[in-house]
Predict the structure.
Amino acid sequence: MPMHYLRSYASPQRDDVGNRRLGRSLAFVAGAVNAGGFFAVGEYTSHMSGVVSALADNLVLGKFTLLLAGLGSLLAFFLGAATSAILINWGRRRAAHSRCALPLLLEAALLLAFGLLGARLAAHGHIAATVALLCFVMGLQNAIVSKASRSEIRTTHVTGLVTDIGIELGKLLYWNRDAGADGRVTADRRRLSLLSSLLAMFLGGGLAGAVGFQYLGFSATVPLALALLLLAAVPLLDDVRGG
């Protein structure tokens, strides 16, 4: 992959094209971790809607062990997003090329640790801790591209994506009968293309993650970690060279 192509992912000079490339790449990773993680620990970890609903259910049913585990997952997602914001803002104040690469590097390290140690943790019954680790990673990742794109792109859940795609499709199919220029309903085809590509990448990542975990187990996250490390490497090297 060309060096200038990699540099567009995580540098402060990244434009909308770079944000879209980063969003698609991270959507693939999120899909892979979410679907693959379900094979590994029996939980989806990239979105908090189900976790919050389960909290209410477990509270009413008196399943306090599951309630605490769900609270841990929710807190881990919060902490992941907060950590990402801290790292990015720290880098921004120092005009670092690696402001978005720093959380990517942390995500790569955590996925690598999950791939190498996850089986051992699961074997010793530390499922809740493993789920919390994946939730932290997903919160970390979602905040990276959300801050980079000014909340235009999110990568770890598809509910919002599907809703926005439906809205744009509705605009696209709307019949502007007898509507003047000011009253015409028009679809944002550029946004529709972006949202559709994010959905496709999440689905593709889910398929890859499911197959990978089925045949490779926890080590299926190692290639994902290496890919994230590659994305983060160029801007990090730019900062090292620049002192």
